[in-house]
Write a structure and sequence with these properties.
Length: about 160
Amino acid sequence: MLERTLANAQPEDALFIYLAGHGAVLDKEYFFVAHDTQVDSLPDTGVSLAKIKTAFDASPSQRAFLWLDFCHSGGIMARGLAGALDDRAVIERALKVVQGEGKLILAACTAHQSAWESAQLRHGLFTDALLRGLKGGAAKDHEVTVNSLFDFIDRQMGSDRPASH
């Protein structure tokens, strides 16, 4: 379904894709663990982050945002994979998003980290920051932008990086 949505998007479509749940690693391959994933058959029933990344990059949409809140979600951008972006390409991609076009992936953690959850919140801390940001916590001059949302989530998740203005 996700691959079909990405493939069928038109260039002018804005996509906001959010995945939360569990993640797993098997033989250096990263997976999103869906509700019907069978852990003992992860390669066949899990959702490969490499396949998600390929479909995301190939989507005709010129404005696509992918938000991932699960353990090992940063594995979608795992270093050392063929076609991995260098720092210059990452900066260029981010600038395009700021200018109203481009594609951006934000993950709750790196490939080797766990995404933290809260029993009280009943979801992940990344999800909580994203929701609060979208509800206005990230607003700058009464508007939530990609930059303001990223800065808000970054601060909420514990970064000591100062907010951009």
